[in-house]
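Practice problem: Glycosyltransferase family 1 protein
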Amino acid sequence: MRVGLVCAHADPSRRAGGPAVGTHHHIARVAAELAVRGHDVRVYERRDAPGQEATETVDGYLVERVPVGPAAGLPTAELVPHVAEFGRWLADRWAGEWAPEVVHGHYWVGGLAAAHAVRETDIPVVQTFHSLGVEQLRHLGPRYDAPDERIPLERALIRAVDIAVAQSNDEVDELTRMGLQRTSVALVPPGVDTGRFHPDGEAAPREARPRILSVAALDAGHGQEDLIRAMRLVGDAELVIAGGPPAEQLAGHAEARQLRELAERSGVADQVTLVGAVPHEQMATWYRSADVVACTPRYSSAGRVSLEAMACGVPVVGYAMGGIADAVVDEVTGRLVPPGDVRTLGVTLRRLLADNAGRFAYGHAAVDRVRCSYTWDRTAGALERLYERVVGRRRPVEAA
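Answer key — structure tokens:
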């Protein structure tokens, strides 16, 4: 099958020569797994630097860089005006000798470009939003900073796609509230690289006292404030926060400074350490160094951190929402607490840190759950069946 994956944002990691992260990591793994299964896969992303190769073969699939807009990195708000041009470029490209049998848009901007490109064809469109503006606005409130046109354009996009891929049950519910029929929403959780994330291997250096690890960007809605406040109830333990800018830039980072000030006011400054950005290929060592991984974002569609921690055999204490609620089985692979309930969060962390046998059992169950239900091979297989279904719907039935 010929598959086109459209992500209008450029992948900055390709420019830097490092591995893909976040949404781009998801797309790269899906593309590679589909290629292994024998599909002809092409990934479309915007050119964002002068002199970039127009095409590049990676892990069995082809990356095509679309020359729209300036050859520089653009925030989403500045990318939106180039979506129609991106779609026209794709339409022209697919009018030649190679055209996809199915197009899969990623994030709302990529989905708009994909839908624009195929609007005069019978090529079906599958869409993964990765996050939804209405959900982010609800959970982040005044900290929501996406472009004003995002939510109305997402509502328009769901009317243009054949099927939407949700990454959690909460996202399934949100998409149906936005107007999609339940039969037009498929739940396909993300995968975990179990070759990289597993219990055996090196662990990052640590102190003798118990370690709680939080992995998230240092920006709105990732819940580090809740964890710092909860530390007053935890007792003698360290909270390590990984994420944000590189360590040498933390001193000038506004959010990092606010977190340190909060730790001072809460009387736990000697228990909180910010280590800055950690390369994704080194994250397994940090997970293995922790007694518990805490996942406390205000919004999480996929629950990637909870899955990676579980794959490393570390129990998770997380907010019962989004992908975290799907990944963590309460009192089996970790503990779920009500979002925003700082007291319950602190008490739960304290009790779990004191329960060595419980953490051991949760860790073993977590590894089994990831290996059974959250591999990239499983994710790619579910998408493959989904593509076959939508192509079969669109393909005309030949007369007998």
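Discussion: Confidence is low (pLDDT under 50) at residues 15-20. Students who identified this feature from the tokens alone can consider the problem solved.
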